[in-house]
Amino acid sequence: MSKQADQPRAGLSQDVLNSLADGVFTVDRDLRITSFNRAAEAITGYSRDEVLGRPCRSIFSSTACGAYCPVREALASGRPVINREFDIRHKNGRKIPVSISASVLRDADGNIVGAVETVRDLSGIGEMKRDIRTRYAFEGMLSRSDKMRSLFDVLPDIAASDATVLIQGESGTGKELVARAIHNLSPRRDKPLVTVNCGALPEQLLESEIFGSRRGAYTGAVENRPGRLEMAEGGTLFLDEIGDLPLPLQVKLLRVLENREYQPLGARQPQKADVRFVTATHRNIARMVDEGSFRRDLYFRINVVSLCLPPLRERPEDIPLLIDYFLDRLNLQYGKKIRGLAPSVLQLLLDYDYPGNVRELLNLLEQMVILGRSGELGPEHLPREFEVRLAGRAPLARSSRMPDRDRLLGILQRNHGNRRKTADELGVDRTTLWRWMKRYNLLHSC
Ligand SMILES: Nc1ncnc2c1ncn2[C@@H]1O[C@H](COP(=O)(O)OP(=O)(O)OP(=O)(O)O)[C@@H](O)[C@H]1O
């Protein structure tokens, strides 16, 4: 290879190139390699002498070669191509995941004379990620927060006991995942885990859904229908949104918890129930007891073991961990190669207060991944509603705690629906108040 080909152009000295941790090489307009730094030698297994003057395609045999070649794209458009993820082949045949960026090189007169490509080896990052994941993962949940980690620590013992559990926490904090973990860690793991959402059905339907019905129990009941309790026999019944259970059904459930037997609708004989109960609610159930909308005796029965999941805004250390985990999952799901978030977007997501908790973070990332292709997700990938939510974000929005629905409604009513006065009284800006009202479906009632 001629000495000339080894001269990096446009002021790139070989010493500077060799000092870089990323692989860097340059090509001329025919895509023949004109310089190759040490990191590129380490990543590809080829020495500089072996590659100089050869078409880069013959060295990299990458998934990027061909229509998606970043160098070709940069040469054609004159614009840089940033962080595209591909696999290249090491000289020994091993596949290596890399992130590639490319931009054109110009001579002193501004003419394009070739391109420079940087190659970052991602295989180490994969291992690091795996280590972090394993360290902070528990039964499909990820967390590095002390509160959550202490909860993970006690879950196996709680699961081993047959005690009834009440899981409390705002919507989207992972209550269902915890219920699942309790079942999976319990001696009942080979029997079914059956879920009932107590807020999803009107009272009568809910009653037959949980307790089942016998033929002739009501008009149209032409056959015996097993209830969820029966389906969960030997296993676990997860009563989600237990705070929404109507009072008459609370009495019925109390009897099951006390006597381990129940009566399906229209049945003459009680039926035995060998079921473990796990319950969850996002409501302040102790207050409901004080207000008389939830039976105190049932509360004591379900509250044998009580777990409380902190909202995401109280464990910001989980946000980057979850982002990373969800991005990998979403990349697989949508066949994308998103590497991460631009620092400005990450900062926004770290500062946000997540009224919808982990579910909201997941939904947000899903919308962004759908809009993106590869490389980093930037502000342009943020969905419009999120920008609207951020628009009025005052510094206090993060620290202010959302009141429960009844308290918010009470303050609004006292202020005759005046949002400015209500926001002032709560110490938040009007956008935060609007968001809370929207969440509680109060926008049209006040
Ligand atoms: N610690 C976590 N690690 C990974 N994923 C999580 C974690 N917490 C929650 N998620 C995910 O967030 C979403 C919401 O979780 P989940 O349904 O368990 O919340 P929830 O508290 O039961 O919500 P709701 O009260 O609205 O029913 C799910 O997709 C769940 O997989």
From TrEMBL:
- Lineage: superkingdom: Bacteria
Q: Does the keyword tRNA-binding apply?
A: no
Domain PAS span(s) in chain numbering = 16-54
Q: Which GO terms describe its biological process?
A: regulation of DNA-templated transcription
The record ties this protein, via InterPro entries, to: AAA+_ATPase, AAA_lid_NorR, Homeodomain-like_sf, HTH_Fis, P-loop_NTPase, PAC, PAS, PAS-assoc_C
Q: Quick check: keyword Nucleotide-binding in the entry?
A: yes
Q: Show where the PAC domain sits.
A: 82-134
GO MF annotation, one: sequence-specific DNA binding
Record SMART domains: AAA, PAC, PAS
Keywords, in A-Z order: ATP-binding, DNA-binding, Nucleotide-binding, Transcription, Transcription regulation
Ranges for the Sigma-54 factor interaction domain? Answer: 141-370
**UniProt protein name:** PAS domain S-box-containing protein
| Lineage, uppermost ranks | Bacteria, Pseudomonadati, Thermodesulfobacteriota, Desulfuromonadia, Desulfuromonadales
